[in-house]
Amino acid sequence: MTEDLNLTADHSGLTDDLAARRYFAKFERITGHLARVAAEMEVERTFSKADVGIISEYVARIAQTFRALSHKYLLTGRDTGVFFGSLSIDRHESGFPVFAEPMKMANDAQQAKAHLSGMRSVEELKDEMVRQIVGDLTVPTKLQYAMSQRLYYEALAKGGLFWATNDPQALWTGNTDERRSYLLHWAVYDSQQNVPTIYLMDVEDTGEVALPKDARRWPSAQAHLMAQGSAGLKLLTIAQGFDRDFDDLHPKRLRRIHVGPMYSSAFTMQTGPIREVLEEAQGPVGEDWTLAWTVEDLHSERTEMEKKGWFSTVEREIFKLDPFGGRGAETGTTSIERSIILPQRPFQVLAEKNPAGFHDVRKFVVSPAGRVVSYR
Questions:
Q1: Which tens digit of pLDDT belongs to each residue from 108-126?
Q2: Are residues 188 and 254 in the same domain?
Q3: How far apart are CA 255 and CA 354, in angstroms?
Q4: Domain that holds residue 27
Q5: What angle do CA 360, 338, 187 make, to 5 degrees?
Q6: What total number of domains does the chain contain?
């Protein structure tokens, strides 16, 4: 039997503690599978070993973020004596928390140490709960709330979460022909689509100082990339802008990974084949979901020398666009690979119905034991 919730707005709050716990438990399972999906893509050579290491780190951050939020909203709908709201999710577009949630977390993180200094320890709270249960024979709701907030701020103070913006980092990948090569990576929680988005850029560096150690170029490059981290921008726009702003940094490949949307008949309003598949599958609690995973890819095809000023020339990248049906100019990519991750039961229904539009979508199927198998 699937979870049954009555959410009536695009951005809805989970106002019931049982619903909130089911929601977080669902994402605990989903995020637990994502690293294995990335590893399967490494086997199929979609990603390199370095790519998988980076993606797995971001996936771990996403999982940690959901755990922190689960502490914050543990007592949703209970009388705690304090109004603290409810988790707002985008039930129409993404199934993930709305952008305001990671923004609130970032603000809370700045004050986490101050909050923790004024709170009783976990051990003290546990002792008080036991005394209230045994002595007063009442449920220690207010103490439970204090404990949940303590755990929330501890998670924020510990760090390792997926923030609204996750600044670019550089991984050195080698030197060739007097050029240093780096894999730049960064991530954002996209404010338009309400999904985590990961960026990977292969760059060749012809500057005099290694990019991560260059006090002039590296902060500027980081700021530039973060300003371009929107799903509304085409990869071609991002890559060409970077290429033109930094004459000695040459973007050879740019990828964008959209982790989501998540579809669940319990928490989202799907339309079309996905809705029919999930309704017909009647997955048990925790197995009523499908997660989309999309990889946009842009490659540099060649370089050209372009005149700059009176006496100098600079190297510019010419990017390869998808040649089929002119889609490259429309999408600004060399290719787009769409995948979905789903449990066995919904996959069986999907395979039987074989709806139009899903033939070219890769399916990563999760067995009850947690094994991930790829199907074309």
A1: 999 999 999 988 899 899 9
A2: yes
A3: 29
A4: 11-89+100-158
A5: 170
A6: 2
